[in-house]
Design goal:
33% helix; two-stranded antiparallel ribbon; alpha+beta
Length: 103
């Protein structure tokens, strides 16, 4: 292989690597921005529709057992949580013990 071909192959590898890196960054950037624009809002999810951990006795998404469970959260657009009205009041930015499953 000539020196010219070896240099060309190296340049091709660098261009391919740069292209792959750019594609990965573009694919992941929207998700990162979307997550940044969301916040956890407690007490607004219907039973079984929470986004993750719902306090003691639960594990993750879909494990809340009562509507508007006050220690279960749902992701909502940033700045809207406190405006969300439920039959039990407004959403909160922290878990409370206001509406929990009966023991």
């Amino acid at each position: 292989m000539s020196k010219f071909n070896a240099q060309l192959n190296n340049k091709s590898m660098y261009v391919a690597a740069a292209g792959l890196s750019l594609a990965v960054m573009m694919a992941t950037a929207p998700g990162a921005d979307a997550a940044k624009d969301m916040e956890k809002c407690y007490g607004v999810a219907l039973s079984g529709q929470n986004d993750c951990k719902a306090g003691a006795g639960t594990t993750c998404a879909g494990t809340s057992t009562v509507d508007y469970q006050s220690n279960a959260w749902k992701l909502v657009p940033t700045g809207t949580c406190l405006e969300i009205e439920t039959p039990n009041g407004h959403g909160t930015l922290e878990a409370t013990d206001k509406t929990l499953p009966k023991a």
